UniProtKB/TrEMBL annotation:
The chain crosses the membrane at residues 12-29. Keywords: ATP-binding, Hydrolase, Magnesium, Membrane, Nucleotide-binding, Transmembrane, Transmembrane helix. InterPro entries: AAA+_ATPase, AAA_N_dom, At3g28540-like_C, ATPase_AAA_core, ATPase_AAA_CS, Mitochondrial_chaperone_BCS1, P-loop_NTPase. This is AAA+ ATPase domain-containing protein. Residues 242-397 form the AAA+ ATPase domain. SMART domains: AAA. Residues 317-337, 478-495 have a biased composition (Basic and acidic residues). Pfam families: AAA, AAA_assoc, AAA_lid_At3g28540. It comes from Escallonia rubra. GO terms for biological process: response to stress. It catalyses: ATP + H2O = ADP + phosphate + H(+). GO terms for molecular function: ATP binding; ATP hydrolysis activity.
Length: 517
């Protein structure tokens, strides 16, 4: 098959050679003749060859990295060509188990964009030398050629290419395997050779559909996340870095970590689980941040435990103590011990991590803190702008229970629901505990038994709470009585002391009077 792009390509190269020869010999022609030849030459060229070609090489220049534009075009053509091209090539996508079909070499497809026709051809460079190379790509230099009519130059170079690259990138994001990263201890990466993050494939099954929360609040959160992910231009317009902070707080087992997984699945982001205690100092924290990619969620779990907010003061105290240790070896040992024990990340380092100048690089990032004790956190850390959205996750309400009942029992309603609703209002139980009670404990356990199990657990929790309240009241009463007793004793002591002082004064007075008399 004679391909349109290739035919024009060959003709184009003949004309290009002619132009080259002309450039070499033009000085031998008189000035006037030269101008005329050039004029007619261009006219002839535009008559014979009204098409423009753009080439996209897989490995431009000497780089070892595949060209990003080439990858995007490959994805775009794979999605658009598999229905039209006759010869396709199957590739296993890196880190994934799915196949991508793309145009085979020397295959061509055409398409129309806003009335402009374009031809895409896939080709391969045959190596000129017979050198042996370590890199398989050396003899596999592929490239795409885009051919279009000169009259469409504007629409193609301005709009069509942008469209192809954006589409290609979006397809790549949709089909990639997402990753769950965690930071390595600094001893395990040497210089810049090893990445500071290691990763596994992220395939947590949690979604917002299976995450139990009051539907209205849940929808608010989903809307907030989706608005953020589409707000690139808006953030640029208002001059804000494209990132958003979420603070999730509440008792253990209320679904904070599950929510992070659901967020990542909704937005198709990678997750960076940052273990602050493994970060040596603020510089390392910054390096870790720079090493993250966009379209990601950076999570710091249990922030109140990870960071000693009095760290700065403590380290100063430790330094003073060290001064007192005279023996050089002791100093060394003490330093080593303190280094291995605590991370030197300070509050200001963390604040900088969240919204310092560096935090803007990359963009499209969500930072999440989770904690059980929000009141322990420094207000500077969670002020709006750093942690933009504060979400309290609390004990299971009836609406949340309904989601869990649907997940675990495929149940929308049941006569026992009213009892459960009442009990959930009267007692506190985390979604984790509710979920655990709805799990089947044996193959024979049916829906009814599992609901009854939950009711029993709720009643037990209610009873326990009541006993605890009575116990607390008793304790409080005892404390009050103790306090009253102590006050009474103090009062008596004071009165006794006053009485003794009064008597002594009388004796002294009497003595003084006696002397005088
Ligand atoms: N709101 C919820 N919806 C669905 N499942 C939940 C929810 N909350 C908790 N669970 C279940 O309970 C388990 C524990 O929840 P999760 O780890 O998210 O709690 P957490 O709030 O992060 O607790 P911690 O503060 O101890 O880290 C999860 O495996 C999940 O199955
Ligand atoms: Mg958690």
């Amino acid at each position: 098959m004679v391909m349109m792009g290739e035919t024009w390509g060959q003709l184009g190269s003949v004309i290009a050679s002619a132009m080259f020869v002309w450039a070499m010999f033009q000085n031998y022609f008189p000035h006037q003749l030269r101008g005329r030849i050039e004029r007619y030459g261009h006219k002839l060229l535009s008559l014979v060859y009204p098409y423009i070609q753009i080439t996209f090489n897989e490995y431009p220049g000497d780089g070892f990295e595949r060209c990003k534009a080439f990858i995007a075009i490959e994805r775009y053509l794979a999605a658009n060509s598999s229905a039209r091209a006759k010869r396709l090539k199957a590739d296993l996508v890196k880190d994934s188990e799915s196949l991508v079909l793309s145009m085979d070499e020397h295959e061509e497809i055409s398409e129309e964009y806003e009335g402009a026709k374009v031809w895409w051809a896939s080709s391969k460079n045959i190596p000129t030398s017979q050198s042996i190379s370590f890199y398989p790509r050396e003899d596999d230099k592929r490239y795409y050629t885009l051919t279009f009519h000169r009259k469409d130059r504007d629409v193609i170079t301005k709009a069509y290419l942008r469209h192809v690259l954006d589409e290609g990138k979006a397809i790549a994001v949709r089909s990639r395997q997402r990753k769950l990263f965690t930071n390595n201890k600094s001893e395990s990466w040497y210089g810049y050779k090893r990445s500071m993050w290691t990763h596994v494939v992220f395939d947590h099954p949690a979604t917002f559909e299976t995450w139990a929360l009051d539907p209205k609040r849940k929808q608010d959160i989903i809307n907030d996340l989706l608005t953020f992910s589409k707000a690139k231009n808006y953030y640029a317009k208002v001059g804000k870095a494209w990132k958003r902070g979420y603070l999730l707080y509440g008792p253990p087992g209320t679904g904070k970590s599950t929510m992070v997984a659901a967020m990542a699945n909704l937005l198709e982001y990678d997750v960076y689980d940052l273990e602050l205690t493994a970060v040596k100092d603020n510089t390392e924290l910054r390096k870790l941040l720079i090493d993250t990619t966009s379209k990601s969620i950076i999570v710091i779990e249990d922030i109140d435990c990870s960071l000693d907010l009095t760290g700065q003061r403590k380290s100063k105290k430790e330094k003073d103590e060290k001064k007192e240790v005279k023996d050089a070896e002791d100093v060394k040992k003490a330093r080593e011990a303190s280094e291995s024990k605590t991370s030197q990340v300070t509050l200001s380092g963390l604040l900088n991590f969240i919204d310092g100048l560096w935090s803007a690089c990359g963009g499209e990032r969500i930072i999440v803190f989770t904690t059980n004790y929000v009141e322990k956190l420094d207000p500077a850390l969670i002020r709006r702008g750093r942690m933009d959205k504060h979400i309290e996750l609390s004990y299971c309400c009836f609406e949340a229970f309904k989601v869990l009942a649907w997940n675990y029992l495929d149940l929308e309603s049941h006569p026992l629901f009213s009892t459960i609703s009442k009990l959930l209002e009267e007692t506190n139980m985390t979604p984790a505990d509710v979920a655990e009670n709805l799990m089947p404990k044996s193959a024979e356990e049916g829906t009814e038994t599992r609901l009854e199990n939950l009711i029993k657990a709720l009643e037990a929790a209610k009873e326990e709470a009541k006993m605890k309240a009575v116990e607390e009241e008793k304790l409080l009463k005892a404390e009050k009585e103790e306090k009253l007793k102590a006050e009474k004793e103090d009062k008596e002591k004071a009165q006794n002391a006053e009485g003794t002082t009064g008597k002594q004064a009388l004796v002294t007075d009497a003595k003084e009077n006696g002397v005088k008399g």
